[in-house]
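Annotated sample (chain length 278).
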Amino acid sequence: MNELPLILFGVLSQAAAGLALVLALLPLVLRDRAADLAGATRLAGRLVFPFAVLAVLASFFHLGDPLGGFRALSHVGGSWMSNEVVLAALFTAVAAALFCLHQWQPASAGAIRAATWATALVGLVLVFATGMIYQLPTRPEWYHWSNLLAGYVTALLLGALLMALLALWKAEAPASAARLLGAVALAGAGLLAVSLIFYAPYLTGVSAVTAEAVFGNLLFWARLAVGIGLPVYTAAQMARGQQPGRAVLSLALVVAFAGEIVARGIFYTSVLDQVPFF
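Output written by the structure step:
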């Protein structure tokens, strides 16, 4: 599938942005209890950068001439694709700064806080830029505001579950943190519900063929039932202050990742009429 590198770029960069956002929010909610997550926070702060790097590397496999990729910068400000390239580079740079601070200056609380917010904010803007690339009047099946929510669904869902697993792995799981992470993951699922409520009738009206390709695809429903269902069940437990088992949380994260990859695959193949690779 020609779009697999783009799928991986989107899911990995959005997961990294979501993890950075969670890292920024945790001290605001936990306040004096933030130290209870010191180990998991440090690990998560170092993990955003490799996710960003992997996302950028994946995107290069989509280029017919990777060495000529710099030409995408020639339309910054006038092209969302050029904007995405710049933002991806900037996101990787601030994530690298965050990595370095957590790795070698863990006591620099102020600098880490600033770098965390910078990474989160640039990441959220990158998610928006990626979504805007597909807001094409020539592709009416994609040309709907609800498709802009897809990247934020991925960011909130994967970012929260990943942070929760790191906290559990480090044996740092206060109930207040679990409630926040559960609420963030549920917010991601809520955005998905909103997007489907508005997008389903729109797509049916624009193209019955594409609507059938999407809603008649068993993988679409499998993603909702498993890739969203299990994470939502797990997030609901966390939102109540409960801590799910490591196996359940790990499985929820894996199926959430897989579900987001499937969703992107359907997004492309249903419109471009290619044979799915899954």
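Annotation: Confidence is low (pLDDT under 50) at residues 274-278.
Annotation: The longest helix spans residues 175-206.
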